[in-house]
Amino acid sequence: MFVLIILMVPFEILMLPLYSQMNDMGLSDSYVGIVLPFMANASTIFFFRQFLSGIPKDIIEAGRIDGATEYGIFGRLIFPLMKPALAAMAILNGMNYWNNFLWPLLVLRTPSKYTLPIGLNTLLTPYGNNYDLLIVGSCFSIIPIFLLYVCFQKYFMEGMVAGAVKG
Predict the structure, then answer these.
(1) Where would I find the beta strands (DSSP E) of the chain?
(2) What is the C-alpha end-to-end distance of the chain, expressed in Å?
(3) Whole-angstrom Cα distance, residue 142 to residue 98?
(4) One pLDDT digit (tens) per residue for the chain, 167 residues
(5) In sequence order, what are the residues at sequence separation of 6 or more whose Cβ sits closer than 8 angstroms to the Cβ of residue 138?
(6) Distance in angstroms (rounded) separating the CA atoms of residues 6 and 41
(7) Using the 8-state DSSP alphabet, how is residue 76 labeled?
(8) Domains of the chain
């Protein structure tokens, strides 16, 4: 219930307290200050909770009957079943964080530390736009997300068709 309440709060409301906290911790103008507030995303927690609640209890009970510890049950039985969910969340969160514009714009002050979306935005000026570099930079910004999808495509597709065949 607490995670669902957190999901209802928009980021714009949390932005000022998070920025103040990053300044107090001395993490402004650093990459750690960009990543740290989003290490535990509420939607990811809710997604994994829902995924794990769909796993049959018989698998866990079978592991206990075989004498496995709780960590052994998770590592040998549950974690392999979670690969499609992990792949889906890696792709979705990777894409969201790679394309994040507002939070890095607030935290970073040094132009040499700007992320790619902020750097591409600096090419748009009132005095003239550098569309050549903007198009090339946009094409290059797609490469990490594409590679992330290619790496996890097998598991992602496996999760899409997991319940399609009965037998």
Answers:
(1) 124-125, 128-129
(2) 35
(3) 10
(4) 888 888 898 988 989 999 999 999 999 999 999 999 888 888 899 889 989 998 889 999 999 999 999 999 999 999 998 988 898 888 888 888 898 999 999 999 999 999 999 999 988 888 888 888 899 999 999 999 999 889 888 887 776 665 544 54
(5) 120
(6) 10
(7) I
(8) 15-160 (1.10.3720.10)
For 157, the token pair is 């597709």
Phi, psi at 141, each rounded to 5°: -70, -20
CA dist 84 and 82 (Å) reads: 6
Token representation of residue 88: 């889906």
Q: Which amino acid is at 115?
A: T
Phi, psi at 115, each rounded to 5°: -80, 170
* DSSP three-state, residue 83: helix
